[in-house]
Amino acid sequence: MGCERSLQWRGDGSQPLPDEILTSTTPLLLRGLVADWPLVRAARQSPLAADAYLRRFHRDASVLATSAAPETGGRIFYNEDLSDFNFSTQMVRFDQVLDALRAHLDQPRPPTLYVGSTTVDTCLPGMRAENDLNFGERDPLTSIWIGNRTCVPAHYDLPDNLACVAAGRRRFTLFPPEQLRNLYIGPLDFTPAGQSVSLVDPRRPDLARFPRYAEALAHAQSAVLEPGDALFIPSMWWHQVEGLEPFNILINYWWRQSPAFMDTPFNTLLQALLTMRDLPPAQRAAWQEIFRHYVFDSDGGEAAHIPPPARGMLAPLDAAGARALRAQVLNRLNR
Questions:
Q1: How far apart are the C-alpha atoms of 28 and 52, rounded to whole Å?
Q2: Boundaries of each JmjC domain copy (predicted)?
Q3: First vs last C-alpha separation in the chain
Q4: Which parts of the chain register pLDDT below 50?
Q5: Alpha-carbon torsion, ordered 279, 282, 285, 290, to 10 deg
Q6: From 43, 242, 244, 298, which residue has the greatest number of CB atoms within 10 Å?
Q7: For residue 78, what is the DSSP state?
């Protein structure tokens, strides 16, 4: 299973990444995209060199650190009956995380140590001046992920994602959005890190319990990224991520292709569960047609017969219209 497309694109850091990459609807493997970053060069020397490089920028910032017993094998997940998680979290200084990772570098079965999705500018001010990419007019959220051998189950993110491996190696396994049914997704409202995850252990899949996962694997794309490599993950693609070394660093960029005033569609899903899922089948089918007409097949023509001043919420959405529509939704919810 290889990533579907692999591009070779090497700018000098001043050139914006091309739209061919940033608007792709399929994953793109970008070997060596950030190979010239000083952090990557340090990591290629040794984990201790990468550790020392990070410490140059640390300014007493605290981060949310995840830890788990060696028995978890690094899998960030639930307990057996999904009543709790198999890990704990606490706020600690970033350099304490580095100390712990360094202390466990040579242990064959260390405890799991993991810091996910921490804003680089908050945690390591000044580092992006030496290790960054040019996104042109886009202003992505830039985060660091650091830990030892870990396994984050398959999940999706709403933003587009450019993930850059700076130290260690990471295996990404991606599934297209239409594989949702075959991934056996867990609870929507009780999640390990904010997003619902697949309940299948990707390293030891139980196909007797999760037989449709075999179909998901048939459509999967997988790649192991070395320091300096990057992977573009389109919005809504399911992806599981494994840290393969005792010391791993990932820098990722998130951005949306929609205006900032748009809410997350997940809010609509919650409302649909509340208002539509348990309707009689005929009524549910009728609402499916309404959503198809006004949302999923919308081309603007559904309101063409209404005079423009009278189109109301059917008019093209802008920031002012979004505020008015949000006020109507909140008013209805508060009745």
A1: 31
A2: 77-270
A3: 51
A4: 1
A5: -90
A6: 43
A7: B
